[in-house]
Task: structure prediction
Amino acid sequence: MLAALSVGAIVGIAVGAVIGVCLIALFLRTLLTRPKDEPVSVLPPRPFDQDKVTAHIQEAVRYPTVTMVDDYKGKDEPFLGYRAFLEREYPLLHAHAERTVIGGYSLVFHLKGSDPSLKPACFLSHQDVVPAPDVGWDYPPFGGELHDGFVYGRGALDMKNHMIALLEGVEQLLKEGKEFERDVYLCFGHDEESSASLDGAPNIVKYFERKGVRMEFVVDEGGSVIDGNQLGIPHPLAMIGASEKGNGDLEITVRKAGGHGATPQYPTADGILADVIRKVERHPMRPRFTPLAKTAFATLAPHAKGIFKFFFVNRDVFSPLLLKVLGLVAPMTNALIRTTLVPTVLTGAPARNIIPAQAKVNINFRILTGQTGKDVEAHLNKILRKEIRKGWVSIDFMPYWDPCEESTVDCSAFETIKRATRATFPDVVVAPYPIVAATDSRFYRAISDCVYRFSPFMMSMDDQPRVHGYNERVRPEAMVQAANWFANVIQATCCK
Ligand SMILES: [Zn+2]
Result:
């Protein structure tokens, strides 16, 4: 007995010692992970006229350039007015660049560089915005009014702020007489906010493909500068999107004998549909880290503090636990690590006293890099196998996009953008990451290996719900800082 206990104790001590040694190793690894010393001197701000920049963003949001679909079909006056405003306010760009109109409303500006052996750089923005009913806003959504240090208006964050800052940056460089070595394209689509987005960006990309133009890099909306403290990092973080998810919709139809409300027979199509929806919500697809998500952790880890640093550095060891936590902690972190499916539109009986012969749900899905629509289909076939076997359920996919390939971040374009970002935003840490929303830039992956999604604006938690929501607004100082970023990035990547 004593001997047996002794063996047990020895095993216990041995196991404890192994765990102890492992923990010490993990702590040491955490301690020894330090940020690389890469000094960058912050560039002095260029002499932008803040009042003029403010007047420009105010006027920009006054054109209600709502995507011309549904109720807004054919309503092109705001787009033509906006185009005339650009012509009037950015004279140097219009004098130096060749402008091409694509699909009636999308605009491509081409500034020629002196060295034809260099591939061009490409900067994107969409001109259109989502609708904004007056109700719910503190100030008129297309008024461009200035209150409490903010310009209010639809598009102030998505993304006339980005487009105006880009134009200010380019106009400033031209004013300074900078010579471009590399060609620069500015591409402004007009229907990014329609879920299909079929006329603008795809046709611009086709135009480049016809001309045989491939881009050195592309910059579009997506990431932004965020407060690092929410991730245990005492720096602002410039999060540059280098991939985005695929997306689409599918319809699940339940068919079952219908009839009169007075003589129900169970289960009804509606009842089965309710079960189907519950299964979709309760059986999410498996989480995992994409290669880019791993790169994001590896980049941020040395800058993190405390427990955040411990888990970021030892991500490989704690991967299952981290995935579990990220899946639960917030919708955004959940979306970063898995393909998501969500029920949106429901349709059932045509009248209150009819039991429907069919009931439908639309499922909106967002596909993680590395997976495809086929994986979504396989997942649904698995979790709904009972309903499918009984012949109750059919699944129909609408046209959808699989995720485009992740962009390279191990390249000189990314390094130069990173340095220019650090030279514009003091104390910032730059990290690539996968974005969860869709942008026009997904089409550009066909003509560039380096497609980056970044708006050079500080986005707070308070700003997030204003995008596509109420009281969208931007600070004039932020506009000027973003204009500086564009000027610095274009100078660093494209000028002599
Ligand atoms: Zn946008």
About this structure: The first strand starts at residue 98 and ends at 102. The domain at 244-397 is CATH 3.30.70.360 (Alpha-Beta Plaits). Residues 75 and 367 are 33 Å apart (CA to CA).
